[in-house]
Design brief:
The chain contains 15 helices and 10 strands. It is of the alpha/beta class.
Length: about 375
């Protein structure tokens, strides 16, 4: 799958000129290759998707606080990273895994990837993100998958942008939307789940038939959809893209501002807040971790105020700690979505493959 939440916004930063490490390797804050491993090691290894990003000062603060140094293994997008851990379960490549979200959580739990651990400070984490009562995973962030729109296009056309799933079916928006493949992309799957949450299990198929008839375009992943097909993004403008609606994130507009030179006073893109689906990302202590103590310390730190307040402008996600403050740029240009639809992880687990197959037969054939 393509990266989520939370993940695509960081890929957007890369598209706008910020380097994001890809593949497996160690982060700038990692220990050198001579670091020892095992229960007595002062290195704790975090396995994550490619878009994990944290300030060097924050990693240094963790080291000063605990004595542990973080080594990061970036392992592709969320689905690929999870698949690698499933293949190596019992002999994990690291101590903590970060990046499994509520659309994939059941796969991780069913495969017994994690050792239960109740992180210190969990009482400050929003209750609605704590979906695993056994504490096999710890909530770290949330992100909202939503349709984004090109403000200039709609202003030039003197057309109000869509705001809801129902709006996307109107003739005025025919041939304007591009979305990602639900079978290969996390944003694409999130958008599908959003339509299921909004239309119900009995109504989503009829909805997608109408959306297909209204000219929705499906591409493989977020990178292509946002940076090649969407006319409102910096990449899309360079590519002369012609679709003014795209499935992305509520946090995408701040990225367009942050990495523009010069920075505009207003984001060039907006968010259709009635088309959102909420993702929650989790981290967990890997079963068989060599440095279990270090892994527990890292999980504690990931829900500390220091770490949580660093995330918004590094990974473009929302903190789960209730007293964490958001940066002004994030609040000024992002959209706060109070009660987006979501689907319970256990329902996703029971129906995900059938929903995807149904979607493929309806939309791709």
């Amino acid at each position: 799958m393509n990266t989520t939440t939370k993940y695509a916004a960081t890929a957007l930063a890369a598209a706008l000129g910020v380097t994001v490490l890809a593949g497996c390797g160690s982060d700038d804050g990692s220990a050198g290759s001579g670091a020892s491993e095992g229960s007595g090691s002062k290195t704790v290894t975090l396995v994550s998707h490619d878009s994990f990003n944290v300030s060097k000062d924050v990693l240094k603060a963790f080291t000063q606080e605990t004595g542990y140094t973080v080594k990061t293994l970036k392992s592709g997008d969320a689905g690929a990273a999870l698949n690698q851990e499933i293949l190596t379960k019992g002999s994990p490549r690291g101590d903590v895994f970060f990046g499994v979200d509520n659309t994939l959580l059941s796969r991780a739990l069913d495969n017994g990837l994690f050792t239960a651990y109740e992180a210190k400070g969990l009482d400050r984490v929003a209750a609605d993100t704590q979906t695993d009562g056994k504490h096999r995973v710890t909530p770290v962030d949330t992100g909202d998958i939503c349709v984004n729109y090109d403000k200039k296009y709609f202003a030039d056309k003197k057309l109000a942008p869509p705001q809801t799933f129902a709006d996307l079916l109107k003739p005025a928006y025919k041939n304007l939307l591009v979305t990602e493949n639900a079978a290969s992309s996390s944003p694409g799957l999130g958008f599908l789940l959003g339509t299921i949450a909004a239309e119900g299990e009995d109504g989503y198929e009829a909805y997608w038939k109408k959306l297909k008839a209204n000219g929705v375009k499906v591409v493989d992943g977020w990178e292509q959809a946002y940076n090649e097909e969407f006319s409102g993004s910096a990449g899309g403008k360079k590519a002369k893209a012609d679709r003014p609606l795209v499935v992305s994130y509520a946090s995408s507009p701040p990225v367009e501002v942050l990495y523009a030179d010069p920075q505009p006073k207003e984001a060039p893109t907006g968010v259709a807040t009635g088309t959102c689906f909420r993702q929650t990302e989790y981290a967990g202590l890997l079963s068989g971790a060599k440095n279990e103590a270090g892994g527990k310390a890292l999980l504690d730190f990931m829900i500390s105020k220091t770490f949580q307040e660093d995330m918004p402008l590094n990974m473009f996600v929302n903190p789960v700690v209730t007293d964490a403050e958001l940066p002004e740029l994030f609040t000024q240009h992002g959209e706060k979505v109070d009660t987006p639809p979501t689907v319970a992880p256990e329902k996703i687990a029971a129906n995900r493959e059938q929903w995807i197959q149904s979607w493929q037969s309806l939309v791709l054939k």
